[in-house]
Amino acid sequence: MDITLKNLGPIQEANFTVGDLTVICGRNNTGKTYITYATYGFLDYWHSGWPEISPIAGFDKHPLETYARRLLHVACMEYSSNWISKIFVGGKNKFKNSTFYLDDDIYETPSVKSKNVKTLPNVFIASAERTGAALFQREVDFTRSRLIDILKETNVNPQQLLGHFTAEYPLPVKHNIDFIRDLPNIVNKQSIFAQEHPEVLQTFDDIAGGEYTINRAGGISYSPSNQPDLNLSLAESSSTVRSLVEIGFYLRHLAQKGDLLMVDEPELNLHPENQRKIARLFAILVNHGIRVFITTHSDYIIKEFNTLLLLNKPDERLQVLAQREGYQLSELLKPEQLNVYMTVVDERVTDKVSYTLIPAKITHDSGIELTSFNDTIEDMNRLQDEIVWG
């Protein structure tokens, strides 16, 4: 999927391709989350069944593929004009000049209702606010319900009062909250990994340090691997457990081949060892047919992807090394599977500070050539060497 964004937050214009594994790196406040949310928003909009449109003129005279591509173009225009502002918080005027365009090969028969078109991937997102969504969703729901009950006993209009307390969240955050709320129903489903590849779930459990379940009250319980009879609530569990809960339930109950999993800052609350492990998990998912899209500030994750690229060569020494270090064939990556981008200042814009994306060079010989982290690390090393050695 080739995507072009214009006039979106700090992004003046950016072009990128969503491949098997897509990584967006860059400094804080340079547009990474805008890019992620806009992409998620369009795919959700496409699959949710966007408003009916009249059949495009000449439908009966063009090949279905041509018609489908034209339908996709219309969807992008409609999304840019009327829907992209609903993905974010800030009002329509803030996004009145924003445009989103997606170009992709479409071969299946289209429908005027996008929910019937299965050519673009189904998408699941774990936002950077996922920890709060997992921890406080039930408490917020209970408090709101209790407040309504109390107000019914007074002369105050409940809906009018609650309108003053309505919180606005970006769509991905709302969907994370909805996901947690619906877990008692979701756990009745089985993902491709639960059905065919339980070893992938075991890999995830190793990172989380245990397993998640839904208890009789409909809440989330966590059982550490070293104490399987112990059931902890999320409030009693570590921040690592809370940050991984949505990814864990998605992998066990929803994930299917062809999906796109989007994770904003997967390194949240993870020790460097687990940051390396989650990079390896993402590679496994990619090799099982799940596309992965992440934003990250983690040098550990990038370097682990690099290792998975460099080990994937017909070199006996490297094969022995991979076996010694516990790497499996299912974890190794090819350069063509990986797209890495960095947010940088857009020098084409002179009247304000704006950002764009530039691709990192990726080769079999050198892996990922990325300066964003290396410059900072080298600067720290230089300073510490001078402190110690003078």
UniProtKB/TrEMBL annotation:
InterPro entries: AAA_GajA/Old/RecF-like (IPR041685), Bact_Antivir_Def_Nuclease (IPR051396), P-loop_NTPase (IPR027417). Residues 120-302 form the Endonuclease GajA/Old nuclease/RecF-like AAA domain. Gene3D superfamilies: P-loop containing nucleotide triphosphate hydrolases. It comes from Thiothrix lacustris. This is Endonuclease GajA/Old nuclease/RecF-like AAA domain-containing protein.
